[in-house]
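Journal club prep, shared notes

We agreed each person brings one worked example of a sequence with its structure written out as tokens. Mine is DJ-1/PfpI family protein. I'm keeping it raw so we can talk through how to read the token line rather than staring at a rendered picture. Sequence first:
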Amino acid sequence: MDATFVLYPNMTALDFVGPYEVIAGVPVVTARFVAATLDPVRSDNGLVVTPTDTFDSLKATDIVVVPGSGHWKEVLRDSGGVVEWLREVHPTTRWTTSVCTGSTLLAEAGLVSRATTHWAAREDLEVRGVEVSTDRVVFDGKVVSGAGVSAGIDMALRLVEAEFGEVVSQAVQVGIEYDPQPPRSYDSIPPEIAQGLRTAFESRQA
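Then the structure, token by token:
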């Protein structure tokens, strides 16, 4: 089974590295990394990743994972071919998934009707006709979305459970020693902290 992780400039590294560690931890999975070209791709905080495939060469896969970006509005204006490739490959997948603002790319491609995303991008998802959930992981048919950044691990574990069963999912979770403490969310923190965070994120989109 192939799992393909989408790369594009200014993606957020943990959005795909977290799910990669989970999904690629299943022995029958072969991980692939797809981008517009085979040139190394730089994440928004500087991690450089080398693709294994291009949008032109890879036309089918079992699982797609679309990361988000700290500069998602810029990416939405110019996705570098990501949206078109998603439309083309989606009919071949068993699961099409996103992490963080990656769900806005799925929405732009017209592939999702209900999804979650990073709290700072909820409006960008809503204006694209998507029912926005504040849940950490959302299943919409074969489309699965995870909220911001670290939620990609949760999304991937839920996906592994759906595809391979609870025992495999539990084994992978314990293998990476994932037991987050304490749980926090944007909607549970004091309003003054939430507003400060929102201001900081909005300034990055200018």
